[in-house]
């Protein structure tokens, strides 16, 4: 019993020393350039306002995690950063030609900085919770990858406990095949992964109507 207790204590200490990171991929909020599919039905200004609410919701949720937050802007690092939490935040610029390359470069950078468990999320999911983020990190204790699949065929969260560049190759981004092809790659390469509940992104008016009074 004493030996078992000692093993549990050692594991607990290792977990406490682990460096966790949440990458937040965020488009710079510019009128007419965010939530364009939503704007087709509700207009540019209303879509811009919706996007701002989604961004604030995302940061409210991630701020509840003790993990380091890396906010990667799409086009430029904003000068006014006062709206973001002041603790555990860093600000970076996405680099790469497409979404896959941008995510790959971000993961590569942070694994080189010796983070142990890394998640990436966007700012489109009004159903993500702090509990789901904690669950994702926990799943990375026993799996190499964790995926939060979205109803549209993409994913709202991807996490890794080691750098797997193949996850970002040969994927037709912004299609309904993203999550299925990602899982096919993991299966064919015998890489262990866990799934979170399937959630919805906010892309269209019916999505926004479902969630606008909840965030």
From TrEMBL:
Pfam families: DUF2064. It comes from Algoriphagus yeomjeoni. InterPro entries: Nucleotide-diphossugar_trans, Trfase_1_rSAM/seldom-assoc. This is Glycosyltransferase. It comes from the Bacteria.
């Amino acid at each position: 019993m004493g030996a078992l207790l000692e093993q549990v204590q050692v594991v607990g200490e290792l977990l406490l020393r682990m460096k966790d990171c949440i990458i937040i991929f965020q488009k710079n909020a510019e009128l007419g350039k965010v939530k364009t599919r939503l704007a087709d039905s509700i207009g540019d200004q209303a879509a811009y306002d919706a996007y701002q609410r989604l961004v604030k919701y995302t940061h409210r949720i991630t701020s509840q995690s003790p993990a380091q937050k890396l906010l990667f802007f799409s086009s430029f690092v904003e000068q006014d950063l006062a709206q973001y939490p002041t603790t555990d935040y860093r600000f970076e610029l996405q680099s790469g030609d497409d979404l896959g390359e941008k995510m790959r470069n971000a993961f590569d950078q942070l694994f080189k900085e010796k983070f142990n468990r890394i998640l990436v999320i966007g700012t489109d999911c009004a159903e993500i919770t702090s509990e789901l983020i904690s669950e994702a990190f926990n799943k990375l204790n026993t799996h190499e990858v964790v995926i939060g699949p979205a109803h549209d065929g993409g994913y709202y969260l991807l996490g890794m406990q080691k750098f797997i560049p193949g996850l970002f190759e040969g994927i037709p981004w912004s299609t309904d095949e993203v999550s299925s092809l990602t899982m096919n790659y993991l299966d064919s390469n015998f890489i262990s992964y866990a799934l979170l509940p399937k959630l919805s992104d906010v892309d269209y008016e019916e999505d926004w109507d479902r969630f606008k009074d909840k965030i």
